[in-house]
Amino acid sequence: MSTLQTATPSAAALDSNKTDESIAVVANQWQLIWWKFRKHKLAMLGGSVTFVIYFVALFADFFAPFPPNAYASNYTYAPPQQLHILDQTEDGLRLQPYVNGYKVEIDYNAGRRNFVVDPEVKIPVGFFVEGEPYKILGLIDANIHLIGPLHADDPMYLLGADRLGQDVFSRTIYGARISMTIGLVGVAMSLVFGVLLGGISGYFGGWVDTLIQRVIEFLQSIPSIPLWIGLAASIPVDVPPLQVYFLITIILSVIGWTGLARVVRGKFYALKSEDFVKAARLDGCSSLRIILRHMVPSFLSHIIAVVTLAIPGMIIAETSLSFLGIGLRTPVVSWGVLLQEAQNIRAISTAPWLFWPGVGVVIAVLALNFLGDGLRDAADPYA
Amino acid sequence: MVQYILKRFLYMIPTLLAVSIVSFIIINLPPGDFVDALIAQRRAESGENVTPEEEVGLRKFYHLDQPLPVQYVDWITGIILEGDFGMSLRWNRPVDQLIWERLAMTFALSLSSMLFIWVVAIPIGVYSAVNQYSIGDYLATFVGFIGLAIPNFLLALVLLYISFRFFDQSVGGLFSPEYIDAPWSLAKVADLFSHMWIPMVVLGTAGTASLIRTLRANLLDELRRPYVTTARTKGLPEYWLLIKYPLRHALNPFVSSLNDIFVNLVSGATIVSIVLSLQTTGPLLFDALRNQDMYLAGSAIMMLSVLTVLGTLFSDLLLAWLDPRIRFS
């Protein structure tokens, strides 16, 4: 049974290089899960990337060279510059990072100015430079940025600029904040509903179970995107951004909880007739105690895996809604909002670098999928 | 079997009723109604102001002065008894005129994406399972994961960009300009198919990826069974051994996931159609929602849901036909 707290010899042998067979080894379940997870290379990679993304999102002010809404109207659609670490001068190579400046070319056919990278001009940049002041985690004053131009007025667009001359690189980093947390908040909300309703459904059974199951089947039979579009379109335009954020998470969890509830119900159903649950009941434990103390811990690892796998879907959904213009709106910076810029073929053919936030989405979704897959495999370390 | 089919049909009725109620609630969620939108639009376009009396008149004209339950009952009885979905307030035309052709297009698109998924996923899934841990298997897994991770609309945008940039053609829409208003003909159908492949690929990628993984896992389980070894020692040719038993077993969950995939396709088609400006229900619904064209929006959401409910019914019946254990439980 997966709830046993002591390791069986075969499970302990999983880590044979560390343990001595003559010593009785007691590893708890989480340790076993970790050992099994560790063997899954892709999952480890996914986990690390996920961690890095959340870390960067948390300290976005430091990692982004510029504030998210800083614009420079004289650098609209400036193309990306390549970052050079070494500078080739007359005295030889010198460690002086720089990017090339821009020159303007007039495109007479299209009747507009185009920026092209000018190899003649060198703009010195540096690491850990002083820039726009911000507060670390909203508490501590700081003004150091990971990278930035040495002279504050010089243009530096590592991933190009958008329609308003805003830095795509900085905005993609800030976008991670909203996009990555909306998945977390949405899943957390789904989890509360899912565990509650799935638990009730599986634990009590009978007509409550039938009712909840019918509701779930019904919600799953409605195509989600039209439903989301319908709900999101009903958010009035004048609602403040923070409220829109929470409304969107609620909308996403309207469908999100059903999948989780199914899993939880299945687990409750399977565990209900187990001996240890029967024993707890005979001991006179209350239903709540049996659920929280005895049943939930035994499938918590599964829940964590399912939750991780649910986050990417939420991220994609938010991105899609915001892209359509009915999710989050500017001035909020999320990957979906940023991709709105890439909505028509004209914009993306002039400035293909507007796709960069999309790359962020793909990497985040991939990493979370790998992580979730690994967690799912490791969730039952005795298998 | 007849009994099972009847039961499934009866189950559908409350679902459809619930679908219609939910659709109606959604379209009434936004603050204000169509008349408000109309007045705002008139004011913006011609600076014309609408007197309160006129406003009341307009509401009466569009039957928006009734309480919501009455409006709902009017709407739903119209649909059931006369097939009348109400008027599109914005287009000033009956909703069913607008919606049927687009719905047919959504259905055609979803169905052809479904076929695409099967045609691609089955051979690749079988190959991946038979040649586990080969380069081809890793490649399929990798491409599959990428397919899962790219949002539909992003893939559509990238394909738009590539075809615009490197092939110098526009891929939006489902028809070439000369065929849009032309009556149906063989040439028009051919034109449709030449435009359909991009949305088909875009819609199919995610489904293909998940089906490859499902099929691979199922087939791997089956291939380890003793009966496969028995068949092999008996001297059965390898391909026949594969097709005769393990594949049939492995396809079972395939059929049961059919309905999830179909729901996802119909749902995904909404967004892809908006990006690629296809003549399906998606853009129509989107416009209708933005203009608070309630009967059109409500009917669109409802008919899309009906489409998926029918898809579910179809896959359930197919599964019951394939698997007697379901039929008799």
The overall pLDDT of chain A, averaged over residues, is: 81
- The succession of helices and strands of chain B, N to C, reads HHHHEEHHHHHHHHHHH
Would you tell me which CATH topology of the largest domain in chain A applies?
A: MetI-like fold
| Overall outline of chain A | elongated
> CA-to-CA gap between the ends of chain A?
10 Å
Which terms summarize this structure?
heterodimer, A: 383 residues, alpha+beta, MetI-like fold, 2 domains, four-stranded antiparallel beta sheet, 13 helices, 4 strands, elongated, disordered N terminus, B: 329 residues, mainly alpha, two-stranded antiparallel sheet, 15 helices, 2 strands, 78% helix
Account of the 3D structure:
The complex is a heterodimer of chains A (about 375) and B (about 325). Chain A is an alpha+beta fold. Chain A folds into 2 domains: about 80-155, no CATH class; about 170-380, MetI-like fold, CATH 1.10.3720.10. Chain A has 13 helices and 4 strands. Chain A has helices spanning about 10, 30-40, 40-60, 60-65, 170-205, 205-220, 225-235, 240-270, 275-280, 285-325, 335-340, 345-350, 355-380; strands at about 85-90, 90-105, 110-135, 140-150. Chain A has a 4-stranded antiparallel β-sheet with strand order 1-2-3-4. In chain A, helix 5 (about 170-205) runs antiparallel to helix 6 and helix 5 (about 170-205) runs parallel beside helix 8. The termini of chain A are close together. Mean pLDDT of chain A is about 80; it is low at about 1-10. Chain B has about 325 residues and is an all-alpha fold. Chain B folds into 2 domains: about 20-80, no CATH class; about 95-320, MetI-like fold (Orthogonal Bundle), CATH 1.10.3720. Helices cover about 80% and strands about 0% of the residues of chain B. The mean pLDDT of chain B is about 80.
